[in-house]
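Newbie here. two chains, one complex. Structure please?
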Amino acid sequence: MVHFLKHNYQDKDYFFLWDVESGSLHNMDSVAFLCAKKRYDKTLSPNEEIEYKKISSKDKDEINAFFNQMEESGSLNSPPRVTYFKKNPDIVKALCLNICHDCNMRCAYCFAKDGSYNTAKEYMTFEVAKKAVDFLIENSGERKNLEIDFFGGEPLLNLDVIKKTVEYAKKAAAARGKVFHFTTTTNCALLDKETADYLNREMVNIVLSLDGRKATHERVRKCLDKTVKYEDLLKKAVYIKEIRGDKSYYVRGTFTVKNLDFSKDIIALNDAGFDQISIEPVVLEESSPLAIRKEHIDEINKEYERFANIYLDRRKTSKWFNFFHFMVDLDFGPCVNKRLTGCGAGTEYLSVSPSGEIYPCHQFVGMEDFIIGDVFIGIKRPEIRKKFSEICVLTKEKCQNCFAKYYCGGGCIANAHKFGEGMDAIYELSCHMTKKRLELSLAIAGIEKLYSINA
Amino acid sequence: HIVTLFKSSLDKNHKTGCGECQSQSCKIHKKM
């Protein structure tokens, strides 16, 4: 399968061929691009047909001979490498601990419904957290690297249990020859210097929730403590960025139908000093006044295109930054196994509620039909994990001819279940945006590579 | 003009699958 890409940057058209099954990216001039479309796509527009007829037979023969060589080398129109894949339903290597179902903010789009997950306000006790750590270690098989993500609600409302859990997990893992990696997500409101320094010391990644411009942020993210202002949150987030050094962090925001000019929010965060940024589309019921719907996709795609060129410009300056959804590693990238496993929800990645119930992931918490077991007894309903283990991009009918199938992890199962065509199918809105972002990611990687070659 | 900018990133990683990465370039990383 071959995918055709064209991107205009600084008034120049760049033409790329993307070989889906091998992960090869080729750059060419407009003549070769047209020959490739004729050869692999079979359909040309009336204007393209006119241009194609102008190409000399000698040029066509030369180009097609080169395509033949590329096919023989396995980098063009190559066959599928993997046709069957099944995840391991028995090993667990990562837990999302919903350390508290409570929050000090009220965000209009929150999937966790003010942090409560439609359940009572609840804080995880250290006893439950210890059992969760034990459950993870016991069910991790030969895996050495284990992960715990402290999630909420707002995790810092239960900081004391986080600290005790980290110490307990480190000792328990060391006794079994394993290593824990801790991560957390915070809205920054409770980040005093002592807490920030603690997170910096113990967390391998810190996610800071900020939506971009002040007006964008304040429109949807309301702090219960009215004395806490946007400027305070920004200042605390900048402090984390400054002390992180080479360690991972990123600022993570959400765009809704109210800010489809979201590139301005990304740039605002970059101008504030952040160099690791993710602004992601909201996922809500279509009836929500903030929801992104099908009629918004064209405008969103145009905004991504505009942003891609701003991004290319900035990455050549002192304003260099990394945009999460444009990250692509075409030299290596993840192994095929990881690409097909995706997030691992329901199999190697599970979520634990404050009372100790086990769910396939944080997006399913509070949905009784998806309770897999609890940390006291263990897995009670292995059939749920088996179902998740059988879902991957290779089993989804609509994904088979998609050029993004090795780069989407199969999409979010929870979103497909809640808003899409079912958990073993797709959520089409998300697919549209994922494909656009991958096209732009490839174009950006290609253009930056061409610049480095020419330099 | 035709130039290959990136070649076969999927081939290079076809037979890994140690399960140790976070749940992404890997170099613990011991058949598909």
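Moderator note: Chain B touches chain A through 28 residues (CB under 8 Å). Chain B is about 10% helix and 15% strand. Thread marked as resolved.
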